[in-house]
Give the backbone structure.
Amino acid sequence: MLHFNLLLNRVGCCILISDEFFPRLRSGYNEEDIILSTAYFYAALAAGIAAVVVFLVLRVKYGGLKGLYSKAIASFFFLLTALCAAAVNPGHEVYAGLIVFGLVLGLSGDIWLDLKWIYEKDMEKFLNAGFIAFMIGHVFYIGAIYKFAGNWSVLTAVLPIIISVVVAIGNVIVSEKLLKLKFGKFRTIVGVYTFFLFMTFAVSAVAMLNNSFAKQWILMAVGGILFILSDAVLSNMYFKEGGNTKPNVVINHTLYYAAQFIIASSVLFIK
C-alpha cells in the first residue's frame, strides 16, 4: 500500500471508497485495484482539462498545425477518461464500448474540422467528413442509452424521435430566417446532424426521468445539452459572416470538451 499512499499524498487528495461508486469492490477486486484505477481516472480527467487549456491558447494564438495537434491530444484525453472509467467500473463492456466508439468518432471529427482551416481548398470535403463523424458518434451515444436505460414504453421510446425531427427542421428554418445563417449546400446535412445531436439529449432526458435520475443519465443529459450549446456557437462560426471570432472559438471548445468529458464519465456510473 506504500506506493498508493505516496501517490495520493502527492496529488493531495483523499479518495473515499464506497460500494455505490466503485462496483469492483463487489466483484472480488481488492482496495488497491480500486484506488489505482480511480487515480488513473482522475489523472486522465485532470490531464485532459490541462490539455484543453493548452489547446485553446495555441488555437487562438497560432491556429494551423499547432492548433490541430494540440486539439487531437486534448481529444485523446476524453477517450482515455472513458477507458479509465471502464476500468473502475468493469462488467459493462458493451456500454463502455459504445461510448468509446462515439468518442473515437468525436476525436476524428475534431481532426477533420480543423483540417478545413488548414487546407481551405478542400474545406467542403473536410466539413462534410466532420459532420458525418460526429453524426455517427451520436448514433453510438443514442444506441447506448436506448439499450441500457431500460423502462422504455412505446411513447417514451418514440417521443424523443418526434421532438428531434421537429427541432431539426425548426433549427434550419429559424437559423436561416431569423439568425441569418447561410447554410447553402450544407443545409441538408445540418438538418440531419441536428436531428442526431438533439436525439442524444432528448433520449438522455427521457432515460433520466424514467430511471429516477440515475447518475449516468444525468451526465448524458448534461453532456447532450452542452453539446447542443457548443454546436450552436459553432454554427455561428461556420455559417454567419464575422462569426469566427476568438471569443466564439473559446466558448465553442469549452462547451464541447465539457460535453465529451461528462459523457465519458457516465461510464463510471453505469449499472
Summary: Residues 30-268 form one domain.
